[in-house]
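pls design
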């Protein structure tokens, strides 16, 4: 190294080098912290890798390739316990019609004639009443215009109370349905219904009467309202319906409902 070069040692490399302390010559001074710095145990790493391989292959084998169609059954419906179809029982047209009448009865007649049609004091019963289960014309006259004065019902005399006219409170369909309900429920009549058209005619004939009927003014006990029965009341379907009703009672009906719904599932 020439003198010129030495003078140009601006970084002082040559002079500093001699004074650099040997780091290894003071081993005990400021020891590097060692606690908590142990390397991750190799065996634990192996265990983790094995667990990841097992878990990954399980998910891979059972996920259906994460494909939506492999995990989704189209049209799937959870199976239901026997007897529980999740659907309301299927009602025949006759039952639906009668149910409509029941609602009218509860809203209009129930307060006087009572829920079981047994009457109450001077209010006569509808159960076993010849005014209910005989001629429908006089029955419609009573409902349309009301009734007052002495009347004998199933052998017992009434007359102290009067029945108000219902023609302003309920329409023809409601009168037809409530008459059908009363005839079915309290008179056991299942072979015929009262239709809206029948009540329409009755209202035209009798609806203008100013005051209530007395029992002696009513039509005869054989006079039926004119009009056809609905299609669903034809003799064949009437028989079929009573068969249905029997099988529902014996439990067969509900079993066949379950079968039907199972067929839909498959
Ligand atoms: C405010 C009370 C009252 C209401 C509401 C009422 N009735 Fe009456 N009903 C009577 C009374 C009272 C008589 C008896 C009248 C008499 O003695 O002349 C009667 C008589 C009858 C009769 C003839 C007698 C018998 O017992 O068979 C029929 C049928 C009848 N009602 C049906 C109905 C129907 C159906 C309804 C509902 C649409 C109805 N009533 C609503 C009080 C009522």
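designed seq:
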């Amino acid at each position: 190294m020439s003198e010129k070069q030495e003078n140009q040692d601006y970084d002082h490399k040559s002079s500093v080098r001699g004074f650099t302390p040997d780091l290894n010559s003071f081993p005990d001074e400021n020891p590097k912290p060692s606690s908590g710095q142990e390397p991750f145990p190799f065996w634990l790493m192996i265990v983790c890798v094995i667990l990841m391989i097992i878990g990954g292959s399980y998910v891979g084998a059972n996920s259906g390739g994460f494909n939506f169609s492999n995990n989704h059954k189209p049209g799937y419906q959870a199976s239901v316990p026997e007897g529980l179809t999740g659907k309301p029982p299927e009602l025949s047209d006759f039952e639906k019609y009668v149910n409509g009448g029941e609602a009218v009865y509860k809203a209009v007649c129930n307060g006087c004639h009572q829920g079981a049609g047994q009457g109450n004091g001077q209010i006569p019963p509808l159960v076993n009443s010849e005014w209910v289960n005989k001629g429908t014309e006089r029955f419609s006259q009573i409902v349309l215009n009301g009734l007052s004065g002495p009347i004998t019902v199933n052998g017992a005399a009434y007359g102290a109370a009067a029945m108000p006219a219902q023609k302003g409170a309920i329409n023809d369909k409601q009168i037809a349905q409530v008459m059908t309900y009363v005839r079915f429920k309290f008179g056991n009549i299942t072979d015929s219904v009262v239709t809206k058209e029948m009540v329409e005619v009755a209202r035209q004939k009798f609806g203008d009467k100013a005051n209530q009927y007395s029992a002696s003014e009513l039509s005869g006990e054989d006079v039926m309202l004119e009009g056809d029965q609905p299609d669903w009341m034809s003799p064949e379907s009437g028989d079929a319906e009573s068969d249905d009703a029997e099988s529902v009672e014996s439990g067969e009906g509900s079993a066949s409902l379950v079968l039907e719904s199972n067929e839909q599932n498959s």
